Amino acid sequence: MKLRIDHMKANPEAYKTMLHLERFIKESGLDPILYELIKIRASQLNGCSFCLDMHTRDLRKMGETEQRIYLLSVWRETNLYSGEERAALELTEALTELPKNGLPDDVYERVRAVFDETQFVTLIMAINAINCWNRLGVATGMFPGYR
């Protein structure tokens, strides 16, 4: 595999902008484990091997179980995830695959049942961030171990 472009060198300001968004999310009060679950699920859907590798490693370092990491792609079929996690994962899938169905009202209602307005917007920004990182990774040819 070969890296197409090193986005950090090609456009440092774009990279800094992404880091500002990451800082906002990390300082927002969003649970770090939940944020990693969001990152992994979006990366699975987007096929970003670099991000998937990075965030599964990060989640392991945070003490997450292998079982919850392995079964994340089939989270609906298990009872391993909390109500908040399930709502956030459902929102992640809907917004990552936005052209398919938009954000259905029933999904919105389930998410809003467990997250207030501020948290809802923060979740949207978290999902936007990982989708942006995934698009950078896939478009530039990032792969696990490239750096």
Which H/E pattern describes the elements? HHHHHHHHH
Helix- and strand-based class? mainly alpha
Distance, first to last CA: 12 Å
Taken from the alpha-carbon principal axes, the silhouette is globular
- The share of residues in helices is over 70%
Task: Give a written overview of the molecule.
The protein has 147 residues and is mainly alpha-helical. The chain has 9 helices and no strands. The two termini are 12 Å apart. The mean pLDDT is 97.
Quick take:
This protein has 147 residues and is mainly α. It has helices spanning 7-10, 12-26, 32-46, 49-61, 66-70, 83-96, 98-101, 105-114, 117-140.
What tags apply to this protein structure?
single chain; 147 residues; mainly alpha; 9 helices
How is the secondary structure organized here?
Blueprint: H1 7-10, H2 12-26, H3 32-46, H4 49-61, H5 66-70, H6 83-96, H7 98-101, H8 105-114, H9 117-140
Helix pairs in contact: 2-9, 3-4, 3-6, 3-9, 6-8, 6-9
